[in-house]
Amino acid sequence: MDSIQRKKLVNELISLIEKGNAHVSFKESVTGLPSELRTIIPENLPYSIWQLVEHIRIAQKDIVDFSSSAGSESLAWPDDYWVEPTDTVTDEDWNNSLQQIEKDQQRFQALLEDEQHDLFAPLPWGTGQSLLREAMLIADHNAYHTAEIVVARRLLKSWK
Fold it and tell me: What phi and psi values does residue 15 have, to the nearest 5 degrees?
């Protein structure tokens, strides 16, 4: 793959992770959410929006850490990927979580943009995973849970 094709592919992957393309972005899904609705678990749903945001943060960080280094510590599924329900989430905790999601996306973007990394080559410390696969995993996983946030917001009467 020449460098022009690589750059096009990287740009498409970054767009997919950040914007979603066919649906609202993660940022859009959480923008304007009243703080008092963060921890409410809508009827017939298993998680609050806070739990979904934290799950996205934890899982994405795990993927980025794994993609960056052989020394990343594995989390236990599912316990380490989900936070327990809570009654309150401070603005500081909420903003820290959103900032960490953005920071980890930027870290992953830097990995993708580094031409020293072959997007298709298996990561030496993995079991066949490549940066391309991990990019699609982040995009797919975040899209799935972003949709759940939108559904929760609709049930809480806090969506467009």
Answer: -60, -40
93 near 51, Cβ under 8 Å?
A: no
pLDDT digits (tens, 9 = 90+) for 7-40: 999 999 999 999 877 789 999 999 999 999 999 9
Q: What integer pLDDT is reported at residue 21 of this predicted model?
A: 77
| Non-local CB neighbours of 120 within 8 Å, separated by 6+ positions | 130, 132
pTM for the model: 0.96
Task: Determine contact, residues 16/118, Cβ cutoff 8 Å.
Answer: no
**CA atoms within 13 A of residue 46's CA, in its CB half-sphere:** 6
d(CA 70, CA 107): 16
